[in-house]
From TrEMBL:
Pfam families: EAL (PF00563). It comes from Roseovarius indicus. Its EC number is 3.1.4.52. InterPro entries: Cyclic-di-GMP_PDE-like, EAL_dom, EAL_sf. Keywords: Hydrolase. The gene is gmr_3. The lineage of its organism: Bacteria, Pseudomonadati, Pseudomonadota, Alphaproteobacteria, Rhodobacterales. This is Cyclic di-GMP phosphodiesterase Gmr. Residues 27-277 form the EAL domain.
Length: 279
């Protein structure tokens, strides 16, 4: 028996075939899991070191990466859920929590320089802006120690708004990083206008770069762009000594990845946290 237009119209979105149903169900479960974590205060930052390429023994700064804990106690990284929540109210609340926790860490540790991820959608979110302004007012050194990371795809949602927002905050000392560069579709016209302070090369071009001629060409090209626009260039997802040595040799400014340390929810600079955990 055939199906008429009304029959198809009655089928809820995402239920038209088994694959779409499975994807829709998974997305709904992720959103519910993150929403529950937010309601029950199971959201935290994991910190990962970013080191100078020529002197990796001492981190130049840290990135605060959002994590949530599910009901079983598993810590879930942002890459497992951020795409599903970014355009939702929960996404805005996650950005608020990340910024609030990051600013608190900077207040508690005055030597800490910290990068915090944000979505361009949060620029117009009142609660996020109030947290930022309160943090900058409460600590005269916070602006010069705070880096806000915006992904390439997020920045391109509202490029004119991002440019204006960056200009205002850079006058207060805040730095901006273009995250995951190379993974999206940045217009070079906007790249010239953005005035990012830092460019972070997406890990897909960095993993195995020491032995991959294609990635070497692309990484060198992105490094040249950063140099042309006076941006510090950071290579993400550095996982081997060979890749680290190659990146240092071509003049990369900073390196970030598991070779130098995995993200940890215990602040690496806080020795009391380690002492309490081992007691």
């Amino acid at each position: 028996m055939g199906y008429d237009a009304k029959t198809w119209a009655d089928i809820p979105a995402g239920h038209d075939n088994p694959l779409n149903f499975a994807v829709t169900s998974r997305d709904r479960q992720l959103i519910e899991m993150v929403t529950d974590a937010v309601k029950n205060d199971r959201v935290m930052l994991a910190y990962q070191a970013i080191v100078p390429a020529g002197a990796p023994a001492r981190p130049a700064l840290y990135e605060g990466l959002i994590r949530v804990m599910d009901t079983t106690g598993r810590i879930i990284p942002a890459c497992d859920f951020i795409a599903e929540i970014e355009a939702t109210e929960t996404g805005r609340i996650i950005d608020c929590i990340a910024l609030e926790q990051g600013l608190k860490a900077m207040h508690d540790y005055p030597d800490l320089r910290l990068a915090i991820n944000m979505s361009a959608r949060s620029i117009g979110y009142p609660r996020w802006n109030e947290i930022l302004r309160r943090g900058l007012r409460g600590d005269p050194t916070a602006g010069e120690r705070l880096i806000l990371e915006i992904t390439e795809s997020s920045a391109m949602l509202v490029p004119e708004l991002v440019v204006s927002f960056m200009t205002d905050l850079q006058s207060e000392g805040v730095s901006f990083a273009l995250d995951d560069f190379g993974s999206g579709y940045t217009s070079f016209r906007y790249l010239k206008s953005f005035y990012f302070d830092i460019l972070k090369i997406d890990g897909q071009f960095i993993r195995g770069v020491a032995h991959d001629p294609d990635n070497q060409v692309l990484t060198n090209a992105m490094l040249s762009i950063a140099e042309q626009f006076d941006m510090i260039c950071i290579a993400e997802s550095v996982e081997t000594a060979e890749d680290a040595h190659y990146l240092q040799r071509i003049g990369m400014d900073c390196l970030q990845g598991y070779f130098f340390g995995a993200p940890t929810v215990r602040p690496p600079w806080d020795t009391t946290a380690w002492e309490s955990a081992s007691a």
